[in-house]
Every structure is written in C-alpha cells, then in structure tokens.
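Q: A reviewer asked whether we had any structural model of the full assembly, not just the individual parts. We don't, so I'm hoping you can provide one. Inputs are below.
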Amino acid sequence: MKETTDIDILVSEVGPRDGLQSVKATLPTELKLEWISALAGAGLREIEVGSFVSAKLLPQMADAAEVVAHALTLPGLFVTALVPNLRGAEAAFSAGIHKITLPISVSEQHSLSNIRKTHAQLLEEVQAIVALRNERFPQVQIEAGLSTAFGCTLQGVVSDDETMAFAVKMAELGVDEVGLSDTVGYANPTQVRRLFTRLFRELGPLAGSAHFHNTRGQGLANVVAALEAGVKTFDGSQGGLGGCPYAPGASGNIVTEDLVYLLESMGLRTGVDIDRLVAAREVLRRGLPAEPLYGFIPDAGVGKNFTYAREAV
Amino acid sequence: MKETTDIDILVSEVGPRDGLQSVKATLPTELKLEWISALAGAGLREIEVGSFVSAKLLPQMADAAEVVAHALTLPGLFVTALVPNLRGAEAAFSAGIHKITLPISVSEQHSLSNIRKTHAQLLEEVQAIVALRNERFPQVQIEAGLSTAFGCTLQGVVSDDETMAFAVKMAELGVDEVGLSDTVGYANPTQVRRLFTRLFRELGPLAGSAHFHNTRGQGLANVVAALEAGVKTFDGSQGGLGGCPYAPGASGNIVTEDLVYLLESMGLRTGVDIDRLVAAREVLRRGLPAEPLYGFIPDAGVGKNFTYAREAV
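A: Here is a predicted structure for the entire assembly that you could use as a starting point for your response.
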C-alpha cells in the first residue's frame, strides 16, 4: 500500500479486527459489512477486516472469509487480516486477502499466553507461512507485527535488543514488512523514537507500521515521536473500540478519528474525510449499543482554524 | 523557579486556578488548602493557587489571599496566581505571591470577551502592573501567558506573526517570562514546535511555559513537540479539572497525572511522586463529588516497565 502518492501517511483501520475481537457483544455480519463500507467510504485505504482464528476461540471472527469477500469489492481498499498460524494463513490466502499480519510476541511469556507457542514454535510457523505464500500465493504481502515490542505486562521491560533481534529474524525469514506494537500501552515517546529509528536503520524499506494503544493516554504522543523516526503507517481503531482491561474510560487502540485530526492538522495528508469518518460511528452505535465509543474529535469537532493538509498553502 | 537542578522539567499545577474557576461547584476553602498541601506534598514545585479577580465574577476565587497565605507556608513551593488587571496585581503582590501570570489574548476578539479590554487597553494595563512591581514589589516575577496563541474560537486562525508580535511586545514591557497557551485546544505538534522554536530564538531566556488544553485529545502530543523546541515548564491540571465546553468526556487542561507519567517515562525528572499525586485526587472527590475527574494513569497505573527518571540508569 506504499505506492500511493496522494497521501503522506497511511492510516490503517484495525477496528473490525482488534476492536471487535475485544468487545463482548458480537457485531452481526451485515452491520460489519456496512461499517467497513462506511470506513472505506470515508477514505481509509487499508482496513484489517478480521482475524482468521478458530471460531471456537473468537466467535466474533467466524465470518472472516465473508467479510474479506465483501471488502474486496470496495474500490481501492487494501484488505488485511490477522493470522496467528499456518491454518489461518491458508484460509486468509484462499479468501483472497491482500495482506496478512502475523502477531509475533517479543516476550516469550506473552507468546505462550497469547497464541500458546514458544518462540521456537513461532519461528517455525512463520517459516511455514512464508513458504506457503511463496509457493501458492505470491501476490499476498506478509507483515510481522511485533507485539510487546515496548514492554510486556508479564515480562515487564522488553529491551530494544530483544525487539530488534526479532525484527531482523522476521526479515531473514522473508516477511515483507515488520511493524512494532505497543500491545499493552507501555511505550513512551523517547523509546518510540529510538526503537523506530533503529528499525528503519537496520531494516530499511522493510520497516513498517506503528500500532499504539492508549491505555495510559500516551498514544498520540507516541505517534508524534514515531513520525519523527520516519513511520508512514499507523494503526487506529474507530472509537478506540476494544476497551481496555485496566481502565474505565481508557480506550484500547488509539482512536482513528483523533489520529486523522492530528495528522491532517500537522499538514500530513491521510486521504480521510473526518466528517464521513465520524458518521461511520453510527453503525457501531446501532450494532453495539452498549459499547462506549471514545475519541475527542467526534464530540469537539475540528477547530475553527482547521484545514485539511491537502488544502493548506 | 528555574534555578532547580534536581528536576529537568517543571510541572506547574494550575488546577486550583484554571480547574476550579471552570467548575460550577465551589470547593470550600478548607478543602482547597488541603488539596494544595497534598499537591505540594506529592512534589509539585509550582502551583497556581488562584485568581485575583472580582469575587462577584468568580466567587470560587474570593478566598485567593487566604489561599496564597497558606501556600506560602508550604516548604519549597513557588506560589503563583492569575491576575487580569492592576487591581488584582496589587492584591496579589500584597498577599506575598511569588509570581503572577497575566492572561494576554493574542486574539483581540477573545480579549474583549474574556477581560473586556482592547489590545491597547491591555498593553496599558501591563505597563501599569510592571511599573507597580518595579516600584514596590521588585521580588515578584511576572509572566505573560499568551492566550489563543495557537488559534481562537472567535477569530479562527491566529498567525505565528501575531503571536510573536505580542511575545516581543511583552518582553519590551518588562515581563520576566512569556508563555504560550492553547486556550481552546486548537494547537497541533507541527505548529507547537515551530512557534516555541521561534519564541526561544527571539526571546531567549524570557521564553516560558506551555499551557495546553486537551479538548481534541492532542495535549500530550503537543507536549512532545514543545519538549523538542526546548520548553522546560508545562502547566497541567489534576484530573484534567476544568471540563470543557464542548465535549462530554473531554478534559480541559492536560491531566497532570498523565503529564508526569509521560515526562518521567521519557527520562525527564519532575520531582513528582505519581502515587502521592493520584492520592491527592481524593480531596477533590470529597469536595467536588459531582465533578468528573479525567486521566488514564489514575486508573491504569504505571506500566510494569516504568522507572522514575531519577532511578533510570
């Protein structure tokens, strides 16, 4: 998705995956499709539409193939999905996905509790997935999303060296992109700037996206630091959907609406229309009436001094 | 307050002034004193304890002199107050204040609606206040806080040149420090970096603090940019107290608790103990039970990877 030249930053919407897998209620498939259409209609170029996991584990994601099929009909949309293992990869590839993201926990404790795999088992799985892609689905991109790259609720500190060792390993295994995820909201701007700078230095064009959570309110502050390090792709979730295991009132992922406002007001083109993006929340309100939606821009609106980056002189 | 060497950044708490003047309920004087003591006890070195304005206009601030008298008994605390005119300045000086902050609206429309003064009248008032200080209270510091420095709900865009012209004018009139305030939550990090860089270049040691609101969720993102421009003093408000005329769930000022966490996790010493700071909220809950308190850190806690800057290797 990096070939576009009419935007400066790619905002990758992960609400249909990261958001919906974290909420208790299930958004009916029909509304999921309507929501994704509305998000794409607002100008989002890339949406992580679901997760190819066991329907027993995550019943909200049981309709992943159907959702991908719909998303593929939306003009210009780059369709991605999360895939934790070879079986999921095969299903996602067969569904016609453009890109898969592999969750790779830098913290082995997190890996064991999240996808029940040791690091050795995880690396084998990545190898098998890349081999499958290379052999039968060469057009599909593979991104490794390094979870707990900035710290882990189980392990505590995760060192830069640990994260970078995994990043390099992933590049060696043949993935196309390596992103860094602050899975638990532990990152700070100093660390973000330092680690992404190193990622770009060591991985060059394979250095990928930033995925921040807002558990401690530091999400957009970390975006500023990542921008300085050269990051061009940011994950966001509409309404900060996903909640947070810790904090009432604290969103999970950074809120796409606030992220787009930040970027555009900084003079960085995202291609997203804020009014249409905010309007897309209506589908969520209808489908998940009990779920709180976060974000400042939907309530406060843009400032009277606001200009889209494309219109700025 | 810039002579200290055991901290890197001065967090200036404005809750007792900016916060309390915005809430409808009045915090009884006794609890105000208890709160200020708790804030100082948590390690905050500077607190804006009130506003010397007409008690008719702001009954919550009628006890300003009594509050200053109490704050002056707290060891090591630098006591400041907001002062909108000469009469307020005389009262604040007589109360023994260490520093006054003059709210100077760069937008004339805002000036007229906020303190009912044209720019010409405002400049005359500043001149008179500086003269009074020089003549009878030479030990008191005067800061000009440039309101609407980044934009105005009435005027819309406020240009860098407009803001800088006022900054230079204030320096010429003899104030000791010029800070920039994003009164209405319009600032973005690009603008913040650009404008503070210019402030430091043109004003040198007179360049002062950053005062950000979080109306659009961009407060801490703006702090990151201001840090890069060299800002060493940031205003914050406990619990984001002050609310916001626009957004339910949107705080007014940036939340001191989250600000301190940001700075410390970035390796910048503030001298503030986060646990004690969070504990100080209890006084507000008691005194203003109906007032929502914002902030992520009080609910989420610090991360397991967190270390105070002073303890970091």
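A: Points you may want to mention in the reply: Chain B has one domain: 10-311. Confidence is low (pLDDT under 50) at residues 245-250 of chain B.
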